[in-house]
Amino acid sequence: MISINELRRNFGPIVAVNGVSFNVGKGEVLGLLGPNGAGKSTLMKMLACFQKPDSGTATICGYDIIENPVEVRKSIGYLAENVPLYNEMTVGDFLNFICDAREIKGKNRKQALDRIVPMCSVESVYHQTIDTLSKGYKRRVGLAQTLIHDPDVLILDEPTDGLDPNQKHEVRDLINNMSKDKCIIVSTHILEEVEAVCSRTIIIAKGEILVDSTPEKLKKEHQCGLDEIFRKITRTKAA
């Protein structure tokens, strides 16, 4: 569902993403790991058609991110690291606005809202303005707008950021429940999250892929936990 071929992106002299290539199929949950500044968010923004690559390309559900960006956006749900929310809107108004943008109308809109509001546990704040919400609830609203059109591909940048332990558990369960029918990329700094939801792991640093494996294979190969593996691999690249 996602095919990435030699994607590159520079910001002046800084190489953010350096010729990255990999594929992700239906039923896979790929954990994208790396230290701050590794290029994870830049890569996700390119896949979501928010930034253009300097070279290379990618296809999502058969659509090219450069030639068919509108079709790509229709095919994906993208949760950015900092979701653009409109503070003066209520949660309900915002989700209806997203339905307008996604052209979800009539009975389909009611079905979408009836499905997503309890799924993301925002019933209790549905009539509150977004500026009154906690960071955790804002993250839930961001997740709701990501999922409301039931996309085949999910690109989730730090999906549990700001959530309490119970909320993190709920979101991980949600990802696990959706995983068999979707193609999912999750960027996270929480290594226990990788073990909880990811069937595959890519570690990047300085814009390059260092490891592409599974959590189980990595732990067996290195005979230690993911946190120690992560430090060992990324420190070697930094050196």
Record the SSE blueprint.
Layout: E1 2-11, E2 14-24, E3 29-33, H1 40-47, E4 55-60, E5 63-64, H2 69-75, E6 76-79, H3 91-101, H4 106-119, H5 135-147, E7 153-157, H6 165-178, E8 183-187, H7 191-197, E9 200-205, E10 208-213, H8 215-222, H9 226-238
Parallel strand pairs: 3-8, 3-9, 6-7, 7-8
Antiparallel strand pairs: 1-2, 1-4, 4-5, 9-10
Features of the shown structure:
239 residues, alpha/beta, Rossmann fold, four-stranded antiparallel beta sheet, 9 helices
How does this model look, in words?
By secondary structure, the protein is of the alpha/beta class. It has a single domain (2-238), classed as P-loop containing nucleotide triphosphate hydrolases (Rossmann fold), CATH 3.40.50. The protein has helices spanning 40-47, 69-75, 91-101, 106-119, 135-147, 165-178, 191-197, 215-222, 226-238; strands spanning 2-11, 14-24, 29-33, 55-60, 63-64, 76-79, 153-157, 183-187, 200-205, 208-213. It has a six-stranded mixed β-sheet with strand order 6-7-8-3-9-10, sandwiched between helices. A four-stranded antiparallel β-sheet has the order 2-1-4-5, covered by helices on one side. Strand 1 (2-11) and strand 2 (14-24) form a beta hairpin. It is globular. The mean pLDDT is 92.
